[in-house]
Write a structure and sequence with these properties.
Number of strands: 6
Number of helices: 2
CATH architecture: 2-Layer Sandwich
Oligomer: single chain
Distance between the termini: 53 Å
Strand order of the largest sheet: 2-3-5-6
Largest sheet: 4 strands, antiparallel
CATH superfamily: GTP cyclohydrolase I, C-terminal domain/NADPH-dependent 7-cyano-7-deazaguanine reductase, N-terminal domain
Order of helices and strands: EEEEHHEE
Shape: globular
Low-confidence stretches: none
Helix content: 10-25%
Structural class: alpha+beta
């Protein structure tokens, strides 16, 4: 069976929809192309989210990220597009995507984009003695 890139996300029902909890996913093999030179750009994506009713299925996330491999994209644009697509797929309470791009021309770029659902606020942090 061959696997191919896809822009479609699969989701599944949140097993604990009444609880705020954080899902953290590290994606160390993201690649896209520089829209100016056509050379590959490499990044590690750090996805954090508080699900509401739906969670993102990991294989579909992998295939989605793979779909950028041959696509030209500025770092800022691709980070925000990925966030928008993920939010549209699973409507989380909160989602943050941090894209850490490898060095290009002596410059490292990190782009951070966030989404907050209307009316949601993070619980206060707990400080233990």
């Amino acid at each position: 069976m061959l696997t191919t890139p896809s822009k479609e996300f699969e989701t599944f029902a949140n097993p604990q929809p009444d609880r705020d909890y954080t899902i953290r996913i590290r994606i160390p093999e993201f690649t896209c192309l520089c829209p100016k030179t056509g050379q590959p750009d490499f990044a590690t994506m750090h996805l954090e989210y508080v699900p509401d009713r739906r969670c993102v299925e990991l294989k579909s996330l992998k295939l989605y990220m793979w779909s950028y491999r041959d696509q030209g994209a500025f770092h800022e644009a691709v980070t925000n597009q990925i966030l928008e697509d993920l939010v549209a797929a699973c409507a989380p309470r909160f989602m943050r995507l941090r894209a850490e791009f490898n060095v290009r021309g002596g410059i490292y770029t990190t782009v951070i984009a966030e989404h907050r659902a209307d009316g949601w606020s993070a619980p206060p942090p707990v400080t233990l003695p």
